[in-house]
Design a protein that fits this description.
heterodimer; A: alpha/beta; Rossmann fold; seven-stranded mixed sheet; 6 helices; 28% helix; B: alpha/beta; TIM Barrel; Spore Coat Polysaccharide Biosynthesis Protein SpsA, Chain A; 3 domains; ten-stranded mixed sheet; six-stranded parallel sheet; 17 helices; 38% helix; flat; methyltransferase activity (chain A); Class I SAM-dependent methyltransferase (chain A); methyltransferase (chain A); Methyltranfer_dom (chain A); SAM-dependent_MTases_sf (chain A)
């Protein structure tokens, strides 16, 4: 069953509920992600499911956007970092939230059954609407819980240990 | 055929819900039909399909609308007006869900939907004989009517049930009406509808993916994973091993265990070589559409979807081909060997996109095929096309080029599926192993180990095992001590 929005709000009631800020694993996975982003000039960058902005605040790009379904998480994110344009919204309305297209989209820890159920085909469709052609999409997920594959060229993939799991980082080019 | 849906959602708690992915699959499967509005529906035309929704629930706006717009399908929305903007708390059996509000209804109409009538309060009209009640329920309020000026010509009986009086009143007000199963196929005032569920399949043709493998075990995991993560998963996946001496067999058998009924494994007792092997492998499958995926290559997730859309388009199209992209240590070299007009761009200095031309007619295609091949070996083809030329044959030409050329010469056309791609690995044996491949292999073995360990634990914790084990211990004890009844007696007392 999809996790209820009320539960997500409750979870985000405290700052840094997942304990990212003082965890070596999370420091490392952020470092790996930032290292793996292809070195290019990015105009518009979007972090889908940005939570309280742990990764978002360090992303490259002229304009960085972060979106999360939890309003509480976005409030913390806005307080933590003023350079990112944060907004609240669901991944299922992602094409309606923006009137621009992005040349880099990051999606971390979102495409799990408790958030998206059986709807991956629709998610590919919606993300495609907001990703520029030749744009880059980076997906980072716990390999054991992840079963998506985007309809783009998979130009790179990295596996590394994360907490007691394996992280799967995929880089796609549209 | 008229399809009936109620709710589309990522979760599917009861049979009235269809998951977003299954709905998407069903929409792809309609690509060989003509989806029409009820006004244009010809019940004798087997090609005609109407998509209908009853409610209308908010999740149709959230999850079905973007998919319907993507496929550019028209659809019908049977509205129960009392619930606009509310939820289904009256229906205590079903999980709580919201209905659409007027704004969402307008958006649905804008996206190709047409509003139709499903009464004000959804009463079962079968046993209602009070004409006033019937007329009240059949009357569309003005404020609802203005939501769709092209709509409200059709009616759907609540719960699919009706009596003669109701039908007569409906005839005075609507162009036609829909039931569920109280009606029939040809009476337009009592059309039956198909209740679509998660598992409902609307397609005519089945699909087989054959992964031939000869000592490419190290790449096999990536190839298989790229098939089982397709938006449209083939009906059969056959891993056909041409007598490999590497880990192919172990990996394939593990996948057969993981996906019983979907993945099959065939191992040739001797190495047959490509032509014989491919023909044998096809014999082991039954599906109408077939494609080969080299064990060292990968598909984009929409590969099957885009190819079947092309094959579904017309009877004459026998083959669907795509562009492909070289990657791997020899990719640059392979790319540079191609003529300039085939170069389609380089990404990250590691992915080399190769362009495949399209043709306007079969004659133009034949002309090109006489000079060089533009239909790659992973193209999807119809079994009937393959049978019409008796399959692969040995010749001077590459076996796939030869097969496809003969199919086109026989009268079939080949069309390109755009918007998808095949990742075509270019490698040499000395450069074949890299860290990523090893990691994938290790993760694969780790996964198999964990699932075996779980099986072992589950077994050891099961009652059957625990009781059998105790009985066995007891039996051993008796066997050892049957000459010593005192000891046995003591032991029995202890057990109690």
């Amino acid at each position: 069953m999809l996790q209820k929005i009320e539960d997500l709000e409750k979870w985000n009631d405290i700052e840094d509920p997942w304990g990212y800020n003082d965890n070596v694993h999370d420091a490392l996975r952020k470092r790996i992600l930032l290292d793996e982003i292809p070195k290019m000039q990015y105009k518009n960058v979007l972090d889908i499911g940005c939570g309280q902005g742990f990764v978002t605040k360090d992303l490259p790009g002229e304009k960085v956007y972060g979106v999360d379904i939890s309003e509480t998480a976005i409030k913390y994110a806005q307080n933590n970092n003023k350079n990112v344009i944060y907004s609240t919204g669901s991944i299922f309305e992602i094409d309606k939230l923006f009137d621009i297209k992005f040349d880099l989209i990051i999606i971390t820890g979102v495409l799990y059954p408790q958030y998206i159920g059986n709807s991956s085909s629709l998610i590919y469709l919606l993300i495609d609407k907001i990703l520029k052609s030749n744009g880059i999409l980076i997906s980072v997920h716990i390999n054991e819980w992840y079963s998506c594959q985007f309809p783009y060229l998979k130009i790179n993939q990295v596996f590394y240990d994360y907490r007691e799991f394996t992280h799967n980082l995929e880089i796609y080019s549209k | 055929m008229i399809l009936m849906y109620h709710k589309i959602h990522p979760d599917t708690p009861t049979m009235w819900w269809v998951s977003v992915n299954e709905f998407y699959r069903q929409m792809v499967e309609l690509s060989n039909k003509k989806v029409v509005y009820l006004n244009d529906y010809d019940c004798k035309n087997e090609n005609h399909v109407v998509i209908t929704f009853d409610g209308i629930y908010k999740n149709i706006y959230e999850y079905a609308l973007p998919i319907l717009k993507h496929f550019n399908y028209p659809f019908e929305l049977f509205l129960t007006s009392d619930y606009v903007g509310y939820d289904n708390s009256f229906d205590s059996v079903e999980p709580l869900t919201k209905f659409t509000n007027s704004f969402e209804l307008l958006k649905l109409v804008e996206g190709g939907g047409r509003l139709q009538w499903h009464t004000k309060s959804h009463p079962n009209l079968k046993n209602v004989s009070d004409l006033e009640v019937i007329i009240e329920e059949l009357t569309v309020p003005e404020e609802i009517k203005i939501l769709d000026i092209n709509g409200f010509d059709w009616f759907a009986y609540p719960h699919g049930e009706f009596n003669d009086l109701v039908v007569n009143e409906v005839k005075l007000r609507f162009r036609g009406a829909l039931s569920c199963n109280q009606g029939d196929e040809f009476d337009k005032y009592r059309f039956n509808r198909l209740t679509v569920e998660n598992h409902t399949s609307l397609k005519k043709n089945t699909i087989a993916c054959i992964i031939p493998c000869y000592n490419y075990g190290r790449f096999l995991i990536e190839a298989i994973e790229s098939v089982i993560k397709q938006t449209i998963i083939p009906d059969e996946i056959l891993i056909s091993d041409d007598c490999s001496t590497d880990e192919t067999q172990i990996i394939a058998q593990e996948y057969v265990k993981k996906f019983p009924g979907l993945i099959k494994y065939n191992r040739n007792e001797t190495n047959l070589g490509i032509v014989k092997h491919f023909n044998e492998a096809i014999k082991l499958t039954k599906a109408d559409f077939i494609f080969f995926l080299g064990a060292d290559n990968r598909l984009l997730s929409n590969y099957v979807e885009e190819c079947i859309k092309i094959l579904n388009k017309s009877e004459e199209i026998g083959i669907a081909y795509t562009d492909y992209t070289f990657f791997g240590p020899r990719a640059k070299m392979a790319y540079e060997l191609l003529p300039d007009f085939r170069h389609f761009g380089i990404i990250n200095n590691s992915f080399f996109k190769v362009f495949f031309p399209e043709t306007n007619s079969r004659f133009e295609l034949l002309d090109i095929l006489n000079q060089s091949n533009i239909i790659h070996g992973s193209s999807m083809f119809k079994r009937t096309a393959y049978d019409s030329v008796q399959g692969y044959i040995q010749s001077e030409m590459p076996e796939d080029y030869n097969l496809f050329k003969r199919i086109v010469e026989k009268g079939w056309d080949a069309k390109k599926a755009k918007n998808t791609n095949l990742e075509y690995r270019q490698h040499s044996d000395s450069q074949a192993n890299n860290v990523l491949l090893l990691q994938k292999l290790m993760l694969f073995y780790k996964d198999s180990y964990l699932s075996l360990k779980k099986e072992k634990n589950d077994y050891e914790n099961s009652k059957v095992f625990r009781i059998s084990y105790k009985l066995y211990r007891f039996y051993r004890f008796i066997k050892r001590n049957y000459k010593n009844p005192r000891k046995i007696f003591k032991r029995i007392l202890k057990i109690k």
